[in-house]
Specification:
- About 55% of the residues lie in helices and about 10% in strands.
- It has a three-stranded antiparallel beta sheet with strand order 1-2-3, with helices on one face.
- α1 runs antiparallel to α3.
- The longest helix has about 70 residues.
- The protein is elongated.
């Protein structure tokens, strides 16, 4: 083999080797990019889940404060406080009261009128603080001296639940489960139940 022919063969081998190296380097870069993209997607999903949990926790905190606010309003209503059965005037179904309540800040009110005004004002505040916030107030079936306050707001994670796997759906259900004071599912009162596509929080108060 001549020197010229050997040089051409060596040059060909070197060129092929460089191409193979460039191809391997390109493949490694693509694999690294894929791994990085999967990692970023995982972090983004975790951040979204954390944000939703934070919003739900904040909504529950507001619900607890709202129940405490209603309790304070009951205590201020002297006519109801000295006539325990008058607290039934605070019982309320879902939605705003059909009839407008008198303004008890400007005019003297009876205990019943004060209760109607409290509920009307309280539900307006609730609708402003929580997304589609609403509540129902009902008498406990097991303890007549207690009132149940069931607060509801829009389920922030409804879109994610719709496409969730079975395992994720169970986690959502556990996080949004409504239980009574004894730990049983539901409120324990047949007429009081959480509306569809809502998250609910149940508090019992004793005026």
């Amino acid at each position: 083999m001549s020197t010229h022919t050997a040089s051409k063969a060596e040059g060909f081998e070197q060129t092929r080797s460089r191409r193979v190296q460039r191809g391997a380097t390109m493949l490694e870069a693509l694999v690294s990019l894929l791994v990085l993209a999967l990692g970023v997607l995982g972090l983004a999903r975790l951040q979204v889940a954390t944000l939703m949990e934070s919003r739900t926790a904040n909504a529950r905190s507001l619900a607890v404060q709202a129940a405490s606010d209603l309790f304070d309003r009951m205590q201020v209503n002297r006519a109801a406080r000295f006539t325990p059965q008058a607290f039934s005037d605070y019982e309320s179904a879902w939605g705003m009261p059909a009839n407008g309540a008198p303004n008890c800040r400007q005019n003297p009110c009876s205990g019943a009128a004060m209760a109607a005004y409290d509920i009307w004002q309280w539900k307006q505040t609730l609708a402003q603080q929580l997304p589609n916030g609403d509540a129902t107030v009902f008498r406990s079936d097991t303890d007549p001296s207690q009132l149940g306050v069931l607060l509801a707001w829009s389920a922030i994670q409804a879109k994610n639940q719709a496409g969730a796997s079975n395992a994720d759906a169970l986690l959502y259900a556990a996080a949004d489960a409504l239980v009574d004071a004894a730990g049983n599912a539901g409120t324990g009162v047949g007429a009081a139940d959480c509306p569809a596509q809502r998250i609910c929080h149940l508090v019992y108060i004793r005026p």
